[in-house]
Every structure is written in C-alpha cells, then in structure tokens.
C-alpha cells in the first residue's frame, strides 16, 4: 500500500501540469544597401560607419504566460551566415513597452548582440508588439563588397 | 518505509527542477546588409592651363607644369588610368604625374595619348583626398607655333 501511494505521488509529480511554455514571436527582418551615396562627403571620404533602423522595425511579443506575475527574460544572440565578427557589430534596443496587461523593463540602451545568449530585457505576463530598434556599426571602405547576413535569435526564458 | 521516503524525495527533486527553468522558446529575424562596389574619383579643378613660351637660346623650349588634386574612394582593388580625347599635336608632349594614395604606386610622369595608360596602380580599400596631379607640357621647336587648344583628360578607376 505504501509503495502504491509513493508511486502514485511520483507519477503525478512527473506528469506535465498542462501549462504551455511561454512563447515569443518576433517580426521585422532588416535589409539595407550600402553604396556610394553613403560616403560621408563624396570621393575621398569614407563610408558612414553606423546605420540605424526605424525605432519599431522589430516587433516582439510574449504570450502564453500563466499571468501577470509570470516573470520572463528575453535573451538575444547572433548566428552568422556571412559576417565580419571583428568588424561589423550589431546592436538592439527596446524603444517602447508594447501592449498588454503585463510589464516590461530594461533593454532601453543599445546592447551589442554577440554569438552567445545575453540578457536583453525582462518582464512579466503577456506583452505584445514590443518595439525594438537595430543598429549596425563598423562599416567602412575596408569592408569588401558582399552581402553580409546574420540571424538574431530572441529567446524567452521563464524565470522565478 | 525507507524506500517510500527515497521515492518521495526523488519526486520532490523532480518537481523543484521542473519549476525552476521551464522550456524556453525562440524566434528569429534576419539582418542582411549588401555592400556594393564603391569607386569614386573627383578632380578638384575643372581645367589647368599650360603655356610653353620661353626658351634658353640654343635649347629646346622650356617645359612647363600645372597642378591640381584628386580625391579617391574605393572599397576594391583598382588602378587609375588616364587618356586624352584626341592625340597631342606633333612634337608636343603632355605628361601626368599622379600621386598614389596609401598603398598604391604612382607610375611617375606618364605621357598622355588617346590610349589609356596606367598612372596609379595597386590601390586598395582607401579613402583619401588631395592627391596631387601634375601635368607637364613640352614642345620642340619643330612643333612651331601651336594655337591654344583644349584636351580632355579622363581619369578612370578601373580593374
């Protein structure tokens, strides 16, 4: 009997509680072209080094939380396809709070995105359409003509 | 009883672990930046004037020079060529000595004709302004009196 009771408790605790994992959705791929029009002052001058997207170019939503006290954190990292890691640097910044009953904080200064997950901003509860701005730095005539491509991976982590 | 206790402890540990870090979820956007070939050259002055008008008795007329500058930006490996729209009159010679930007090599004083000639080679990923262009005009007495005329010299950043 005692064995049966213990086994039942064990199985119940192992079973999924039925709650969905917190979900993150991101939209807003960023594409741009650098050409002679981006020279600082025509022939003899170098390229403008920094390029910034619209303030709300990327929209991030967090959903399927368990409620307004369900804390989460957004991590971000880069996965390069064709990139110049020592030259081109990518930054992200949260430019607004989005919508919803939840809360959001942090991430309101430009944060460099590396190839390792790093905390970007945090919040609690469901939150939609959080605006994010992107910035590319390091452009110059030393960057050879090519199409440079990388992916930004946003991960929502449920925290205590 | 002891076995029950072990099982309960294990169950408690499983519950604790499962609540600390729930499954994370991710989404991705792509950043694409196209850098196009950039090759820009600008000459400061629209024209230079060269007049051969003096000589030392017993010698050919004195050659003369006139200078201007150019600015260049390239994100590739290039050279600069120079060409006249039409050939110079007989017994007259026009030369160009173009200074090289950092990393490049000047060909020195190059005789200009209506066939493109290299004036600077080995230019790579550079943005520099104010590089000198020195034109030289010489004529022998066999040229005679040559009426004032214009030639168009075209500098090209090329492979």
3D architecture notes:
The complex is a heterodimer of chains A (160) and B (159). Chain A has 160 residues and is mainly β. Chain A has a single domain (21-28, 46-158), classed as Immunoglobulin-like (Sandwich), CATH 2.60.40. Chain A contains 1 helix and 11 strands. In chain A, strands 1, 3, 4, 6, 8 and 10 form a 6-stranded antiparallel β-sheet that branches. Chain A has a 4-stranded antiparallel β-sheet with strand order 7-9-5-11, with no helix packed on it. The longest helix of chain A is centred in the first third of the chain and has 13 residues, at 2-14. Chain B is mainly β and 159 residues long. Chain B has a single domain (42-158), classed as Immunoglobulin-like, CATH 2.60.40. Helix content of chain B is 12%, strand content 49%. Chain B has one helix at 2-20, and strands spanning 25-35, 39-43, 64-84, 92-98, 105-106, 109-111, 117-139, 153-158. In chain B, strands 2, 3, 4, 5, 6, 7 and 8 form a 7-stranded antiparallel β-sheet that branches. Chain B is rod-shaped. In chain B, 22% of the residues are buried.
In summary, what is this structure?
Chain A is mainly β.
What is the topology?
The complex is a heterodimer of chains A (160) and B (159).
Chain A: H1 2-14, E1 23-27, E2 30-34, E3 50-52, E4 58-63, E5 71-82, E6 89-94, E7 103-105, E8 111-112, E9 118-124, E10 127-137, E11 146-158
Chain B: H1 2-20, E1 25-35, E2 39-43, E3 64-84, E4 92-98, E5 105-106, E6 109-111, E7 117-139, E8 153-158
Antiparallel strand pairs in B: 2-3, 3-7, 3-8, 4-6, 4-7, 5-7
């Amino acid at each position: 009997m005692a064995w049966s009771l213990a086994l039942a408790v064990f199985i119940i605790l192992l079973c999924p509680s039925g709650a969905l994992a917190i979900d993150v959705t991101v939209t807003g791929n960023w594409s741009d072209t650098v050409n002679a029009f981006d020279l600082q002052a025509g022939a003899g001058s170098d390229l403008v080094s920094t390029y910034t997207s619209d303030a709300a170019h990327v929209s991030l939503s967090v959903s399927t939380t368990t409620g307004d006290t369900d804390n989460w954190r957004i991590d971000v990292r880069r996965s390069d396809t064709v990139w110049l890691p020592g030259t081109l640097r990518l930054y992200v910044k949260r430019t607004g709070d989005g919508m919803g009953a939840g809360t959001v904080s942090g991430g309101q200064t430009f944060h460099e995105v590396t190839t390792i997950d790093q905390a970007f901003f945090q919040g609690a509860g469901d939150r939609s359409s959080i605006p994010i701005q992107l910035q590319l730095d390091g452009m110059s005539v030393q960057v050879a003509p090519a199409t440079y491509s990388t992916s930004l991976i946003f991960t929502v982590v449920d925290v205590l | 009883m002891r076995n029950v206790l072990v099982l309960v402890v294990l169950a408690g540990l499983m519950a604790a672990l499962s609540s600390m870090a729930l499954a994370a979820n991710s989404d991705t956007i792509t950043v694409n930046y196209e850098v196009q070939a950039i090759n820009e050259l600008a000459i400061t002055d629209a024209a230079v004037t060269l007049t051969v008008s003096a000589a030392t008795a017993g010698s050919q007329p004195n050659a003369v020079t006139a200078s201007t500058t150019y600015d260049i930006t390239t994100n590739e490996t290039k050279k600069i060529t120079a060409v006249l729209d039409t050939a110079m009159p007989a017994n007259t010679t026009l030369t160009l000595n173009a200074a090289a930007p950092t990393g490049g090599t000047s060909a020195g004083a190059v005789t200009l004709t209506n066939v493109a000639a290299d004036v600077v080679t080995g230019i790579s990923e550079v943005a520099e302004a104010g590089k000198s262009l020195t034109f030289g005009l010489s004529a022998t007495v066999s040229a005679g009196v040559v009426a004032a005329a214009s030639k168009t010299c075209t500098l090209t950043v090329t492979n």
